[in-house]
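Quick note —
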Amino acid sequence: MCSMDEINSLPFAQQQRLRFIESMVLWEGSVQRQRVCEVFRVNPNHVTRDIQVYKKQYPKSLEYNPSLRAYEPGSKFSPHMASGDPSEYLALLYAYAESESVAMLPVLGTGGPLVDVLHAPPCKIDQYVLRTVVQAMQRGKGFTALYSSMSSDKPQTRTLWPHALLHTGIHWHVRAYDSKRDAFRNFAIQRIGKIEANDLSCPLGRDVDEEWHQQVIVEVIPNPQLNQHQQNVVANDYGMTRTSAGWVWTQQIRKCLVGYFLVHHRLDLQLSAWPNNPLSLKDPTAIEPFLFGAES
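Predicted structure written out below.
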């Protein structure tokens, strides 16, 4: 058996192939050499050596099935390089189905299960805008841009200093200091128009962005109007924990994201909205300050 240090010292490309082999055996039950060859564009000899390395490190983990011409889990198979967490595999499937990007092939490969998803709205983020935003973050500098807000009847010029990217479940935002409001706010990237980088340093450091650093505990429960069986189903759907007071889903969220969380899960609606929402807030009064603060 070779040591884990030896595995970690292998070339990155070979480690990726070993992780792929293990993931396919774990989730799909088998993997063929030809599939590995096609995904990574290597010859069969490379894959043969990879499998030998894996079997030497983890004896009895893989067994060859001649009728399928594929490797299957052996008597002592268990994930070592993949996490073994179902959410990891499903998240990768979702990312591939959403983007249809070949960049996902080294992780998932081809020939896996058929997958489709409900796509997010195809908001158009300008390539140059995104590059400028990300590079400003990396440089610790700012940019000036035309920004379209729902609170204005036309685009307005804003000078911003970004320090983080946020995904709200549908859209990407940038967290930035806004000179106009003298505060840190969230800005939807697809609403940023003409943009120009500058070399100005931010008047305030991100360490004073309280709504970024401070977190809020949000407790979500099954809608009380549901019967007990239905509440149990909802609790299972959302991975809730049973407490002495009943089922609860506890989320610790940055203050600047709480409003988006409430909107995304329709928790800003009243209980009378059932059956449109199976969820409710354990203490609605605790999140009242965030109900109308989600939009920039």
